[in-house]
Amino acid sequence: MRLNQCQNFHDFRRMARQRLPGPIFNYIDGAADDETTYRRNTQAFEACDLVPDVLRGVAQVDMSVSVMGQKLALPVYCSPTALQRLFHHDGERAVAAAAGKFGTMFGVSSLGTVSLEEARKISGGPQVYQFYFHKDRGLNRDMMARAKKAGVQVMMLTVDSITGGNRERDKRTGFAIPFRLNLAGIAQFAIKPAWAVNYVTHERFRLPQLDGHVDMGGGAMSISRYFTDMLDPAMSWDDVAAMVKEWGGQFCLKGIMSVEDARRAVDIGCTGIVLSNHGGRQLDGSRSAFDQLAEIVDAVGDRIDVMMDGGVQRGTHVLKALALGAKAVGLGRYYLFPLAAAGQPGVERALDLMRIEIERAMKLMGCRSVSDLQRRHLRFR
Ligand SMILES: Cc1cc2nc3c(=O)[nH]c(=O)nc-3n(C[C@H](O)[C@H](O)[C@H](O)COP(=O)(O)O)c2cc1C
d(Cα 224, Cα 36) in Å, to the nearest integer? Predict the structure, then answer.
């Protein structure tokens, strides 16, 4: 399959699967336990029908939104994801550049493979820095200071990963960082020599956000030990309140699911929340963010920017979330498979297809701007 033949998520996924060694494809594609939540995330959109208006004069549509103080040309952004240079040698550079071209926001993960400073220079668009809460409070403070100095606009603390999810596909293949592949896993790499040549002929794989803390050579700390040894499962609302104060700018929590927690986020001064179950990769059986959206928008939507992610594969999925009151919608695997398939041109093609789908669907819904999308445009089965 070639890039210009890719028309949708499924095509990109197929192309990524062809290109990537099995353990890496399954790291992206996989989720926790029985992957029920992963499947449910997309199914949730399918249980909701659109009810269009017609004859509304939709020659021009405005897809822009304002979220967390940022103006985005599209109502979607690239959610932060780990290890992108493992999927394609350009990794975060490709995603930062593509997001910038489309006038939208992108996230750099604490487990990113390009420094947040370099990503900042590449993209003209707004940047999120996603981080986890470490036992070492000094490290937390240093990270925030570093992000501030680099000009990052939005801090995003992920709160659903206090411990690693049970990713059984990774256990089967032996996927870990540093690599600790089993024989079947090694064989999978051997049959994708193009990926392997690319990997070894580009700069050394690093986690620049955690330089000095996580050793990619395999000595000091693997990623799974990063989660178990360095992150603080005792993190509390008081800890986060102190961070929000220290940052003093746009601060959101990613992985909020309950109304109670959404209210607390408002109380401690957060400016945004992302309803998310981490793409089904953490707590299997967790509700989909889309199903939980209306309740949370009703409770706090007038006081905080509510975003959501999980399972978004189509422009119509985005429209449904916006109609329920989301301010913007995060994309994960939707841009990761194109990244793996074709680097920056892949991400650009995926964002362009999404832009075209959103524009077409808005016209077909009789909506000239995102604010025209209302709950009356939706019926749940
Ligand atoms: C391969 C992969 C790596 C991810 N890494 C991170 C991460 O480092 N930090 C984080 O907050 N979320 C991470 N996520 C979750 C995404 O930000 C997002 O919440 C999720 O992918 C949305 O679901 P979707 O993939 O169905 O769109 C990751 C997701 C994937 C698929």
Answer: 23
Q: Is residue 213 within 8 Å of 230, Cβ to Cβ?
A: yes
Q: Mind listing the pLDDT tens digit for each residue in 120-157?
A: 999 989 999 999 999 988 889 999 999 999 999 999 99
Taking the complete model, does pTM exceed 0.90, yes or no?
Answer: yes
Q: Ligand 1 pocket: which of 13, 278, 283, 339 to mutate (most atoms <8 Å of CB)?
A: 278
Q: What is the 3-state secondary structure (H, E, C) of 89-148?
A: CCHHHHHHHHHHHCCCCEEEECCCCCCHHHHHHHCCCCEEEEECCECCHHHHHHHHHHHH
324 in Cβ contact with 294 (< 8 Å): yes
Q: 93 Cβ partners below 8 Å, 6+ apart?
A: 114, 118, 119, 122, 344
State how many domains the chain has: 1
Burial grade of 45 (CB within 10 A; 0-12, 13-18, 19 or more): buried
Query: How many Å lie between the centroid of ligand 1 and the Cα of residue 279?
Result: 6
Query: Which helix (H) or strand (E) is 350 found in, with range?
Result: helix 333-364
Measuring CA to CA, which residue among 127, 125, 128, 126 is closest to residue 100? 125
User: Reduced to 3 states, what is the DSSP secondary structure of residue 13?
Assistant: helix
Ligand 1 centre from 310 Cα, in Å? 8
Question: Residue 84's domain is classified under what CATH number?
Answer: 3.20.20.70
Would you say 377 and 50 are in contact if contact means Cβ atoms under 8 Å apart? yes
Query: Tokens representing 211?
Result: 């330089």
- Alpha carbons 323 and 358: distance in angstroms, whole number: 13
By residue range, what is the domain housing residue 322? 1-378
Non-local (6+) Cβ contacts of 231 within 8 A are 132, 133, 134, 135, 161, 162, 163
